[in-house]
UniProtKB/TrEMBL annotation:
It comes from Paratrimastix pyriformis. It holds the Pfam family Beta-prop_DCAF12. It comes from the Eukaryota. Residues 85-437 form the DDB1- and CUL4-associated factor 12 beta-propeller domain. The lineage of its organism: Eukaryota, Metamonada, Preaxostyla, Paratrimastigidae, Paratrimastix. This is DDB1- and CUL4-associated factor 12.
Amino acid sequence: MAMGEDDEDVVVLPSGGPLSSENELNDSGPTGSVSLTRWVLAGNETPPQFNRFHCPSMVKSITQLVAQRRPYCLVEREVFFTHEDALDKIFASHWITPDQLLLGTKNNKLVLLLHPGRADARTTFIPLPASRSKLPVEPSGIHFFQLSPSGRLMATGTTNPNDIGIFLYPEMTPLAVLEGFSDWAFDGVWLDECTLAAAGRDHSLAVWRLPPEGTSDTFPFFRPAVHNLQAHRNKVREIKLDRGASCCALPDLDCCFLCCADDGKFATMGPDRQIKIWDSGTISEVAVWGIPEDRDYTSMAFEDETHRFIIGSHTHLCLVDHRAPMTTIIRSRSFGIRSLLAEGHILSIGGGDGTLSFLDTRTERFLEVTTPTGARGLFTAGRGSLVRDDTWQMYFDPSWQVPNSLYTMAYDPSGRLLFTGGGPYPCGLKGVYAALW
């Protein structure tokens, strides 16, 4: 059921004044009786009343409240690129600042989008470090961004999709190229500041160790993996972060990889419908759980509060508590889930059919948001930009409105803006879709 003003949560300030939805805001913050949700969603920092009294639990409550209400405020603003940019399907996204957004594309371009959503927005292409191994015939693209615990190193794609590039962040100066896969690198996660683990299409799990920052190693240098294990019977492709447990995460399509630094465990998931738990110290398998049969197991998220893996497939969401173990199956409203983003107890779901929906993981029910089109609980992505090449003209009906799959989602640092990126659903078509909500 959609929430209105009568449902607004009331939080009591340390001074004793309740926060509700009746009074207006002023420049210095909410005073007396005012809506915290409206204050934060308007783009302001956490109210000074909370900062002054150092209430981390209350700040967490505000964050959760904003995550709950945010879907009811969304309006799509498409971002368009020039013909010269020649971008094809956005697979990965990462906000550096509210004015700088990193994008990774299927045609292997690392893009810095400046001032997204503004009239003066422009793109800058970041050079990728060269690889010394032979490039594969089939292109792959850049599938993930993974920031190290200190925020100084960024792992992402490079010239060869089988390798991983390490950059100084936020300068995006190349430092290293990691080698170890015989096929595409799909996802990666930092086990600590100098140890990166990654998942590949060659069914393997690889681990690299980097020298501490400031040592004598200079770029370009190439580092082989110190561990390379056959993790699954099929490809291992996507990574997600447990932020509450100081872990690291990132997105893609057919398999997921997760690290939890609090207990020295991480998990992988593949199309073989298994979740495997690994010891991060010994890089050895310690447990295996099966998940229900379905096709297109393409994305995974980790929910911090309940410590559940959330797995997306063709028609379902599986919420898996590996400690019990318990599995909850929810039929998805999106057709072919391509991306998941957990923010508090609100899960954002990007579909292959170009739909965006939201699930409250506490109630395990979808939010019944009324969208601009009048639909209940299901936003639809805009038209994007489609390349009408020979493939389009030969095999597709010109009257068909091609849906744009949502391959990546990311909230900006303020938590107000949601970026969604992707491109045309059929794999043979080229094009790009990007929007701010």
